[in-house]
TrEMBL record:
Topology class, membrane: Multi-pass membrane protein
GO cellular component: membrane
Family annotation (InterPro entries): NnrU_dom (IPR009915)
Highest taxon above the source species: Bacteria
Pfam family name, one: NnrU
Keywords: Membrane, Transmembrane, Transmembrane helix
UniProt-recorded name of the protein: NnrU domain-containing protein
Compartment list: Membrane
Sequence intervals crossing the membrane: 6-24, 36-56, 68-89, 110-129, 135-151, 192-213
Every NnrU domain range: 6-217
Length: 221
C-alpha cells in the first residue's frame, strides 16, 4: 500500500462527495450550465477513476493486513446477487427528488437507498474476504462513497415535509420497514426482468473476474 494509492482513493471519494454536497451542484449548474456541469463532473470522475486504477496497479500485490476466514469467499458468492439486484433495481427505478420523492414502490419498499446499499454490501462483502492493503483501500473507498451518499440523501429528505413522510414509510436498513409493518414485500413490483438482468450481470462478472482482477471468485470450490 502506497501514499499514491491513498491519495487516489481520497480524490476518488472527493469527486463523488463534493459535487453532490448540498448547494454545490446548483451553484455549479448556474455558472456552467447543465451541459457544462455534466461534462466537468464526467471528466473529473473519469480522471479520478483512471488515477485510482493506475495507483492500484502500481501498488503491486499489497502487504497482507489480515487473513480472511474460510467462510468469507463463499459468503461473497452467495450474497453478491443481492448487491447486483439492489443496484440494477435502483438504476431502472426512479426515486424522485428529495423534496418530492415518489411513493415507495418495488425495491424502495425494501430500502430507501437501494443503489448505495448495494454498493455498500459489495464493499463490505469483499472487504472481509480480502486481506491485502491495496484491496482494503479499494473497498473502504467504495464503502465511504456509499455511506456518504446515504447520509447526504437522508439529510436532504429531512428538510421537507414530503421527504420526512417518505422516511417514516421506508427504512435505510434493508427489510427493516417491512419487518416493522410500515411496508409490505411485493416482489412483483420489482419484476422478473430486473432479477434476471441482475443475475446475468452477476454471471458475467464471475466469468470476467479472473481476467480483470487475477482471481476467480470460485477458487474455493
Amino acid at each position: 500500500m502506497t501514499t499514491d494509492l491513498l491519495l487516489a482513493a481520497l480524490f476518488l471519494f472527493a469527486t463523488h462527495a463534493v459535487p453532490s454536497w448540498p448547494g454545490v451542484r446548483p451553484w455549479l449548474i448556474a455558472r456552467l450550465g447543465r451541459g457544462g456541469f455534466v461534462a466537468l463532473h464526467s471528466l473529473g470522475s473519469l480522471l479520478a477513476l483512471g488515477l485510482f486504477v493506475w495507483a492500484y496497479r502500481e501498488a503491486g500485490g499489497g502487504e497482507p493486513l489480515f487473513v480472511p476466514a474460510g467462510w468469507a469467499a463463499p459468503l461473497v458468492v452467495a450474497l453478491m446477487p443481492l448487491s447486483f439486484l439492489l443496484i440494477a433495481a435502483r438504476v431502472t427505478s426512479k426515486a424522485g427528488e428529495p423534496d418530492a420523492p415518489n411513493p415507495p414502490r418495488g425495491v424502495y419498499r425494501i430500502t430507501r437507498f437501494p443503489g448505495s446499499m448495494g454498493l455498500l454490501l459489495w464493499a463490505l462483502l469483499h472487504l472481509q474476504a480480502t486481506g491485502d492493503g491495496r484491496r482494503v483501500v479499494l473497498f473502504v473507498a467504495m464503502a465511504a462513497i456509499a455511506l456518504f451518499a446515504m447520509a447526504k440523501n437522508d439529510w436532504l429528505l429531512r428538510r421537507g415535509a414530503a421527504g420526512r413522510a417518505y422516511r417514516v414509510e421506508t427504512s435505510a436498513l434493508p427489510f427493516a420497514a417491512i419487518l416493522a409493518g410500515r411496508q409490505s414485500f411485493r416482489p412483483g413490483e420489482i419484476g422478473w426482468g430486473r432479477v434476471l438482468g441482475a443475475l446475468a450481470a452477476y454471471a458475467a462478472m464471475i466469468a470476467v473476474h479472473p481476467w480483470l482482477f487475477g482471481v476467480s471468485p470460485l477458487y474455493w470450490l
